[in-house]
Amino acid sequence: MKWNAKQYEQQFQFVPSYGEELLGLLTVKPGSRVIDLGCGNGALTGKLAEAGYDVTGVDASPEMLALARKNHPRISFILADAASYRPDHPADAVFSNAMMHWVPKARQDTLLQNVAASLRTGGEFVFEMGGRGNNALIHGTLGDLFRERGLEYRMPFYFPSIGEYTPMLERAGMAADFSAQFRRPTPRKSEHAIVDWILMFDREPFGGLPEEEIRSIAAEAEKRLKDRLFQDGVWYLDYVRLRMKARRRPDP
Ligand code: BEZ
C-alpha cells in the first residue's frame, strides 16, 4: 500500500502515541539490540532509541521510511517486507505496534517464523495489533453499504483473538507470557473522523471504484455510524487491541 505519510503524521499520530504504553513491556536492558518491525514514520523507533536501545526500524513503505529517516537521522532504518525480514544477527527483542494486522492471515505463520528466527533464544517479542472485533462497527457498516450496491466488501485486515494467536506463536517456537485483549474506544476530534479513517486506511476493498463513489460511501458510513460512535461532539473509533509478549524458546 502507498502511504500518504505526511497526512498520516498530521492526522494519525495517535497510532504511535498509544503504542508508547507497549514500550513498558520490554524488559531487555538498555544497550540491547531491538528491531522495530513495521516502524512507520519512526515515532516509536525514536522512543526506543531514547530508552537506550540499539534499535533498527524496518518498514515496507518508502514514503514512511523517508519521514522516519528525516525525523531520526541517527537511527538505522531498513526498507523490507516485515513478514519476510530476518536480520543478519539475531536481536534481543522484536517490537511491533499496529502493523501485524496488515499481514494477511495466510502469511501470519511466515511472519511469526521470521520473528522467531530474528530473536536469540530467550529474546522477547512485544507487540500490539488489532484484536478480534477491531473496528467491527465500521467494517460492518461498509459491508452493508457494499451489499446494497451489489458489491462485495472484503475486510482487508487480520484481527485474531488471544485464543487463536497463542498457538500460532507456539508453533513458531515462541511462548506467550503476557496477553491482553481489550476495547479501546479512540477519540478523534476531526469532524469527519470516519471518512478520514476510511480514506487513510481502508481503501483496498474499494478497488478501482471512482474516487467520488469511494468518498460518497465513506460519507454514508459516517452518517450511519453517528448514533453509535459520536458522543458529546467527539467521534470514538471502535478499536480492540491484542497486546502480547512472547519469548523465543530454545530450539528442540
Ligand atoms: C489498528 O491499529 O487497529 C488499525 C489501524 C488501521 C487499520 C486497521 C487497523
Provide key terms for this protein.
single chain; 252 residues; alpha/beta; 9 helices; 8 strands; binds benzoic acid
Structure commentary:
It is built from nine helices and eight strands. The chain is of the alpha/beta class. Strands 1, 2, 3, 4, 5, 6, 7 and 8 form an eight-stranded mixed sheet that branches. Helix 3 (43-50) links the parallel strand 1 (33-37) and strand 2. Helix 6 packs across helix 9 (211-229) and helix 8 packs across helix 9 (211-229). The radius of gyration is 18 Å and the shape is globular. The model has no long low-confidence stretch (mean pLDDT 95). It binds benzoic acid. Benzoic acid (BEZ) binds at residues 15, 98, 101, 130, 134, 157, 201, 239.
**Biggest beta-sheet profile:** 8 strands, mixed
Helix content: 25-40%
Strand and helix order: HHEHEHEEHEHHEHHEE
Shape: globular
Number of H/I helices: 9
Cα gyration radius (Å): 18 Å
Q: Which regions contain 5 or more consecutive residues with pLDDT less than 50? A: none
Task: Give the tally of β-strands.
Answer: 8
Backbone structural class: alpha/beta
Q: What proportion of the residues form beta strands (DSSP E)?
A: 25-35%
List of distinct ligands in this structure: benzoic acid
Mean pLDDT: 95
Calculate the terminal CA-CA distance, rounded to whole Å: 38 Å
